[in-house]
Specification:
With about 525 residues, this protein is α/β, with parallel strands linked by helices. Among the domains are: about 300 residues, Trimethylamine methyltransferase-like (TIM Barrel), CATH 3.20.20; about 25 residues, no CATH class. The protein is built from 18 helices and 22 strands. The strands form six sheets. It has a seven-stranded parallel sheet with strand order 7-19-18-15-13-11-10. Strands 3-4-2-12 form a four-stranded mixed sheet. Strand 16 and strand 17 form a beta hairpin. The protein is globular, with a radius of gyration of 24 Å. The protein starts with 6 loop residues before the first strand and ends in an 8-residue tail after the last helix.
Length: about 525
């Protein structure tokens, strides 16, 4: 399967007339302090035991014959009439022991492989909104141009590590072949780790094969190197649909990454109390974890937490709330109890790029960081409760993510950083701008923001009183001017395109359209 390593240089979209954006270098942030714990050990155990009770006495509906067969062989109580599956607690606790505590997620570019678990953070771009928006063209249905441009932004910014899914759903591509065209864009417009969707068994098989081709691996090599990430959402409360279960079977059997994330909104799809919502979240996540390990012991798994609350006046989802922060932190405690990596999200319910969008995102990131989140989904661009991918919000979030990354950098205390000589040089009542210590370090002494404007009022007013959203609008346009496609192996691209052409000729996947 290996081919000569000839490469095609990346192509610019336009002449380089704009300066590059000053940004942090590629690096996975690490949390070098103990994560926050809101529950004591007894409270955490109470939630664990309540989750096991849910699985034992109530059970979950599994809408896949293959999944139910695996569970039945493992000793679960399966009712083929109702599709309900009930779990013996001992079977659950024994089965989940084989899940790895950490693993490497491989990218097309070896320099961008990701460590998932431990104290590492992986930031993923916005994924799956049906709409896009920007200040120039407003809110509109997702389309191919916006999809590709959001991929370009995701590639450009080093603080975005994972293509977490379709940054916006390109509705102008037919469902039967959308997964083929979208995955090709992920592979060619970025060189980062990518994701697929388990919405159709044939489709996820196609994406697995395209991932293998993109890294020029044999089947056996792919089975040893996790290279594709997929999120499985339960149909809360207490239900797995057939496509998602079949996706677990396809992905876990090939040793690819499954993240099970219950969509437990307190008061709507879960009890209105946080303890009850977390018990249900945990039960659904554990059922998914059991499923992956029955398919293939040791298959990589990520515990997903997405418990928030709804606005009890309207029923709309709310994010960046105190309740969301609490459940995010406690979700991390639960994931660590089972010794598996933890997925959470950077989210906002704001309908525009305003103060609400900023403070909800900050609160979300506070929860994900202090809660020990390993994979941060929707970390840049997610707005309106997940209905919109915003170009300006993407830039705002990148700035926030870089600030978090800088916050996580350890403070160095030594003779050089103490700078006692500079104190002597400045003298009593002096200043430090001209000291040798400052002059040697001023260029990169502090974080340089993308959005914040630190000019005084008069200078800011003279510049036209620019708002944060206006500056973000200029930044994303500038990025698209200087973006370059990453280099790609020409033989790989030929093989990839041949596979896509063959699958399109065969009709792609079956649809009702």
């Amino acid at each position: 399967m290996a081919r000569p390593n000839t490469t095609r240089r990346g192509r610019r979209r336009s002449p380089d007339t704009s300066p590059q954006i000053d940004q942090l270098p590629w690096k996975q942030p690490q949390i070098n302090f103990p994560p926050l714990e809101l529950l004591n050990s007894d409270q955490l155990e109470t939630i664990h035991l309540a989750s096991l009770e849910i699985l034992k006495d109530i059970g979950m509906e599994f809408m896949s014959t293959d999944a139910r067969e695996l569970l039945k062989k493992a000793g679960a109580d399966v009712d083929e009439t109702t599709h309900m599956v009930r779990f013996d607690p001992a079977m659950v606790e024994e089965t989940i022991k084989t899940a790895p505590s950490s693993f490497r997620l491989h990218a097309r570019n070896p320099l961008k492989h990701l460590e998932i678990g431990g104290n590492y953070i992986t930031n993923g771009c916005v994924s799956s909104p049906p709409n896009a928006s920007d200040m120039d063209n407003g809110r509109r249905p997702g389309n191919t141009v916006d999809y590709q441009n959001l991929l370009r932004l995701s590639q450009y910014f080093n603080i975005i590590h994972l293509i977490g899914g379709y940054p916006v759903e390109p509705l102008d591509r037919h469902v039967s072949t959308r997964h083929l065209l979208n995955t090709r864009d992920m592979i060619t417009l970025t060189d980062k780790a990518i994701s697929g969707y388990c919405l159709d068994r044939t489709a996820i098989r196609d994406v697995i094969e395209m991932t293998r081709i993109s890294r020029q691996l044999t089947d056996d090599q792919l089975d040893q190197e996790p290279s594709l990430f997929s999120v499985i959402n339960t149909n809360s409360p207490l239900k797995f649909d057939g496509a998602m279960l079949n996706g677990i079977i396809e992905m876990s059997s090939r040793n690819q990454v499954i993240c099970v994330t219950p969509f437990t909104l307190a008061g709507a799809m879960a009890p209105v109390t946080l303890a009850g919502a977390l018990a249900q979240q945990n039960a659904e996540a554990l059922a998914g974890l059991v499923m992956t390990q029955l398919v293939r012991p040791g298959a990589p798994f990520v515990y997903g937490g997405f418990t928030s609350n709804v606005d009890m006046k309207s029923g709309a989802p709310a994010f960046g709330t105190p309740e969301y922060m609490k459940t995010t932190v406690i979700g991390g405690q639960l994931a660590r109890r089972y010794n598996v990596p933890y997925r959470t999200s950077g989210v906002s319910a704001s309908n525009t790029v305003d103060a609400q969008a900023a403070y909800e995102s900050v609160f979300s990131l506070w929860g994900t960081t202090m809660g020990g989140g390993n994979v941060i989904k929707h970390a840049a661009g997610w707005m309106e409760g997940g209905l919109v991918a915003s170009f300006e919000k993407f830039i705002l979030d990148v700035d926030l993510l870089q600030m978090v990354s800088q916050f996580l950098e350890p403070v160095v205390v030594d003779d050089e950083t103490l700078g006692l000589d500079s104190i002597v040089e400045a003298g009593v009542g002096g200043h430090f701008f001209g000291t040798a210590h400052t002059q040697a370090r001023y260029k990169d002494a502090f974080y340089s923001p993308l959005i914040s404007d630190w000019r005084n009022f008069e200078n800011w007013q003279e510049a036209g009183s620019p708002q944060s959203s206006e500056k973000a609008n200029k930044v994303w346009k500038q990025v698209l001017e200087v973006y370059e496609e990453p280099a790609i192996d020409t033989a790989m691209l030929e093989e990839l395109d041949a596979f896509i052409a063959k699958r399109i000729e065969e009709g792609g996947i079956a649809t009702d359209f």
